[in-house]
Amino acid sequence: MSFSSPEFWVALLQIIGVNIVLSGDNAVVIALAARSLPPAQQKKAVAWGSGAAVVMRIVLTIVAVELLRLPYLKLVGAALLLWIALQLLLPEDEAHGEASASGSLASAIKTILVADLVMSLDNVIAVAAAAKGSLALLVIGLAISIPLVVFASTLLLNLMGRFPVIITLGAALLGWVAGEMAISDPAVKDWIDAHMAYLHFVAPALGAAGVVALGKFLAGRAEAKALAEAQAETPTALARGDAGARRILLAVDGSEHSRKAIEQVLALSKDARDPRAMQIHLANVQPSLPGDVSGFVSKDSVHGFHHEHADAALKTARQMLQQAGLVFKEHEAVGHAGPMIAEMAKKEGCDLIVMGTRGLGSKSAALLGSVAQSTLEHATVPVLLVK
Question: Tens of pLDDT along 34-57?
Fold first, then answer.
């Protein structure tokens, strides 16, 4: 492929896209491994650990490109890519390992390097497939995307948590690459070119659509199971007290839509006969970290990471409610936001949930899902969505 061909630029974008999406867990490890160090050492740990990991990643990917030239290996790689894409859409394992906290520069660098070696299989296969055998394309793609992940790891993590559509699109992209990879295997390519050339267009599309459809189905089943387990453990809801009192669960994520939801609760307090009788439960649910991250960082680091992000998301709401003289109780949780918000409201005996919505249309919400839609599906009390 030449630099002037559209195929080159499409493949380059694919490499950058899959590497960014699949490097989310690596970015988390980089952030957490250096988290307990002094600020000056944090920068050194990230620089040295990431630098060594980048070199290792490039070498492994070049080896994978050569191996994929062999018959049948692309078919195996395509199947593995489809599995990896599905894992992106499934709820993460929320159990944490017993890794010890990293308290030294050398330990942090070692953690980053070992974690990247263990967790890079998906990146290596996906990037090697997207490169389509072009070493120049491979090096350029990695040179662009890896530094982006290294130096913008926290930003990327926040974006993926706030806009889950990024993960959905990333999974679809992996499905597309898997479809292209399967029909280009040396064992079947000549026969497909001669008898079923249309598969060059159909297979990638089927891979993308199939991954999203099956991923949504399996994620729905997993979410229903998690909700059933949570309901079984939930104690009886608290008594509602005075008939005039209202218990409101205000779910926020720090976005502008959350600010509008806070303003709605303030408006409700002004309309109440006795604002002091209102019981407000201020809640934030952080998404679970990728399951394989827990094997490389301590529980304390993970809990601290979640608390920092939850505290930042609650800050504006906390200040606005305090300024209005309203009494509230804060809740932080980790997991699947929709079911957890609904279950939290039930546990606290709330009679209303107030939250912002990102304004997804019905078609977009059906395809991509949203926290608001998930909350509506699981809540047993009214939900007030504020745009």
Answer: 666 777 777 777 777 777 777 777
Among the three residues 180, 197, 225, which one is the final residue of a domain in this structure?
225
Sign of the dihedral through C-alpha 148, 149, 153, 155 = positive
Q: Are 355 and 363 in contact, with CB atoms under 8 Å apart?
A: no
Q: What would the pLDDT profile of 4-15 be if each residue is shown by its tens digit?
A: 778 888 888 888
> Burial letters for 35-72: b for 16+ Cβ neighbours within 10 Å, e otherwise?
bbbeeeebeebbebbbbbbbeebbebbbebbeebeeee
Contacts 24+ apart (CB under 8 A), 216-221: 216/89, 216/369, 218/86, 218/89, 218/90, 219/89, 219/90, 219/91
Whether residue 214 is found in the same domain as residue 272: no
Domain span holding position 274: 237-386
Q: Name which of 64-78, 351-365, 372-386 the model is least confident about.
A: 351-365
Claim to verify: residue 148 and residue 267 sit in the same structural domain: no
| Paired residues of 285 in beta bridges | 333
Q: Which residue has the tokens 């205000």?
A: 250
User: Domain tally for the chain?
Assistant: 2
Q: Count Cβ atoms within 10 A of the Cβ of residue 269 and give its class: 0-12 exposed, 13-18 middle, 19 or more buried.
A: buried
* pTM score: 0.63
